[in-house]
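The records we work with from here on pair a chain with its fold. Each token is a code from a learned vocabulary of local backbone shapes. A record is reproduced here so that you can trace the correspondence yourselves:

_____
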Amino acid sequence: MNRTTKYISIGFLFSFCVFTSIAQKFSTSKHQSAFNKIETAKRLDSLWNVYNNKILIDTSRIKALTYIAFIYRNYYSKPDTAITLALQALKLTQSQPDKKEKKWSSKCLYIIANSYIDKSNYPKALEYHLKAIKEFEEIGDKKMIGKSYATLGRFAMDQSDNSKAFEYYLKHLKICEEIGDIEGLAYSYNNLGDFYSNISDYPKALKYYEQALQASEKIEKKGLIGIYYGNIGRNYLNQSNLPKALEYHLKAYKVIKEYGQKSNLAKVYGSMGELYTKLTNYTLAIAYCDSALQLNKEIGDIQIEQWIYEILASSYYKTGCYREAYETHLKFKTLYDSIYNTANNKKLNDIANKYEVEKTEAKQLKLDLIAKEEKKRQNILLLLVSGGLLFVVTFSVFVFRSLKITRRQKLTIEIKNKEVEEKNKEIIESISYAKRLQEAILPPQEFINKHIPDNFILYKPKDLVAGDFYWSEKINDLFFIAAADSTGHGV
């Protein structure tokens, strides 16, 4: 059995399993487990009850309607309904323009932007993404800022601006690493895988796709796991490693059918169509492409549609169905031009440039305000310092004058004290002299002992010169002794 025959045999085995499930009309139950479908429906009913209860505060109703819009886009693949509901929620948030409500208005803008991506209306998608980023930056929602950078990277890559795309993807990666967002890291690795795949560096692309798969397995995000299986399969398909491509597309189909979105399932069918085109099994290729187109009718993603028509055109041509090949090629070309025409590209560039200009102007305005505040602060600081210096100088002059006066007063007091000391000295000397005079007139102790042997004299002057004194004298045979009290004191 040669290699091509082997691939076709595997393909028929797979198609037998798959086409039994896609032969009937597609419905949501074909892409979600019964349990998930019931749970989603129950949750949707609960959210509608909250929104319709007008007794509740507006914040609760806004939150409920935002989640309803999210479910219609992410679970039911109905971007038009999601846009209508998100715009309605956005209108409610505008009646309460505070920071808390901006959390929900920014999410509404993000849902609208991604819904326009689903519709391949890229100018509108970019317009709403830039509005969303502005609000995410105002409320400081790093996680959503990162997601928006990732989307801007997608836009840049679609415009073949690879350097800008890589710059945005690295910004997203850095934010996810800073905040520890594992799901965000999975998205970021996947985007980098797409980037390297876009520039045909398939080994590096595979490395990032595998990192994305590991991150999604870590948090058990089945929907993401299915997408990353599909991307790894496409990477092998681009390298013409068809067995590996088939292996991973089978894995992707199994997971996405149960947990994923219709758009992702349509992409898996499209990739299978491309795979069988390379295997020259054009019958299976056309069958898978038809299934993808049938499913895409419910989604309205014209980017998927133009890609499928491109594969179909090639398959019809190879089988000799030239009319069908020509018609499908015209459809492909029409859709391709509607997505990537010059007017659209110019509009995208104009919107992106306007955003960059506004962002630069806002940044400059912020810098100007900071500079103005800094100058104001410096002026206030200068005034405070000047006032402080003036106070210090004034106080120093006051202290200096006080010290000068104090020195002068001290000198005067010292002079006066010296004069007083001189006077005191003179007075003390006079009193001391008076004391000597007083002691000279007092009778000697021997004189009194001679005449009165048994005696004692208690004489204790209060000051140097006493106010009292004693006197004795012998006249003939008589001995006189007296104690006298002077009138007044002093010399």
